[in-house]
Amino acid sequence: MLLFGHVGLTIGLARVLSREVDVRWVAVASVLPDVIDKPLRYLMAPAFTQSNTRTVGHSLTVILVSMLVGLLLRRTIRGAGVVALVLPLHLLLDGMWVPDLRVSLLWPWAGNGFPPLNEVGLPGLWNHLVHDLCDPVNLAGELGGMLVLGYLWCWCGLSSAARRAHVWKTGMLVPVPRRERLQKV
Ligand SMILES: [Zn+2]
């Protein structure tokens, strides 16, 4: 899945589970496997990853360690339990259970033999994007994520710069009070 699917669906679920949760951390958690794997693939270790974009960061081991770190930071992260709980959602949305991705899912216990992807340069990146968007499940996820983000945008009145700044500063998604919403209508 791509950006909007991951961020939108994960923030939506986390906000349903907790009103207090810090959505800035939820946003980071929703894309953490890609934040780890994309630089590995494109900058740091293309040979190690065999040009595959789902490797170390998409493993159960790294997700479990990240969940543990999240829980240990519970004094710093508001709603750390929920942030830890939604971390594995990335693997679910990426469909990491298919046989092709098993080496990544079970890394390092199943070795480093990631299935090679031969996508070179910008055309390779473009093909990857088009391939992802042609998959109906991916497309539905992206649209679903956009819908959730759009709903939260309206519900929390984020067209107002002051309200956006508040989310940026506190990580709280606070709905516009009903009275205010009715006044606008
Ligand atoms: Zn991913």
Short précis:
65% of the residues lie in helices and 0% in strands. The protein is mainly α and 185 residues long.
Let me know the largest β-sheet: none
Hetero groups: zinc ion
Quickly count the domains. 1
Name the helix and strand elements from N-terminus to C-terminus, one letter apiece: HHHHHHHHHHH
Structure report:
The protein is mostly helical. The protein has helices at 3-17, 23-44, 46-49, 60-72, 80-86, 89-93, 102-105, 121-134, 136-155, 161-170, 178-184. The protein has one domain (3-184). It contains eleven helices and no strands. The chain is globular, with a radius of gyration of 18 Å. The mean pLDDT is 90. Zinc ion binds at residues 33-34, 54, 58, 90, 94.
Question: How do the strands and helices of this protein lay out in sequence?
Answer:
Blueprint: H1 3-17, H2 23-44, H3 46-49, H4 60-72, H5 80-86, H6 89-93, H7 102-105, H8 121-134, H9 136-155, H10 161-170, H11 178-184
Helix pairs in contact: 1-2, 1-9, 2-5, 4-5
